[in-house]
Amino acid sequence: NLWGERWTKLVQNSMNNPVTAATGLTSGDCLRNPKIRSFQIRLAGEAIRVGQALGYQLEKMKGVDPESIARAAEGDRNALEEVETSLVPKAGANPRGDIQRPSMAQDILKGRRTEIDAMNGFIAAKGATVGVPAPSHAKLAQIVTKVERGEVKPSPSLVDAGS
Q1: Fewer CB within 10 Å, N- or C-terminus of the chain?
Q2: For residue 87, what pLDDT is reported?
Q3: CA neighbours within 13 Å on the CB side: how many for 139?
């Protein structure tokens, strides 16, 4: 299931890396913020639906079935509870996670171009091709591009406004 595994990794990266780049927060801080976490779940759900439309069999993410994540993104309260339980970092579980930043956030800090078009932009484009909208990915790609160009500074409010 090579393509399913690759798309699963893309889902995971697309809901984390660019969000840290846009907000300036660590992965753990993003996941502890309810508004940002909700946006991340929506990103995952959209990407999962695009992958499914492309015919990929996605793998579990943090022990959660992709269908549960997609349903959580679509408003299923039981699925949301399961997903949030798996996503919210437990106290002391990963102390390095509170200081490390994914590569896209590091690119922003160092003034380098990001891979936003090859990640969230790609998901949005593939979604358009198969008729599955991915508006959160398109919006996040715009936000990160503005941050990358220096038009705006990374801030949690960018994602709050984008969600």
Answers
A1: N
A2: 87
A3: 17
pTM above 0.70, yes or no: yes
Q: Whats the size of the chain, residue-wise?
A: 163
SS3 61: strand
Q: Give tens-digit pLDDT for 138-158.
A: 999 999 999 999 999 999 999
In the block, tokens 């896209």 appear at 104
Candidates 41, 55, 56, 54; CA nearest to 6 is 56
Dihedral, CA of residue 75, residue 119, residue 107 and residue 84, to nearest 10: 20
Q: How far apart are CA 18 and CA 47, in angstroms?
A: 14
CA 154 to chain centre: 16
| 39: nearest Cα among 110, 87, 96 | 87
What is the rounded distance in angstroms from the CA atom of residue 47 to the CA atom of residue 50? 5
Report the C-alpha gap between 102 and 119 in whole angstroms. 14
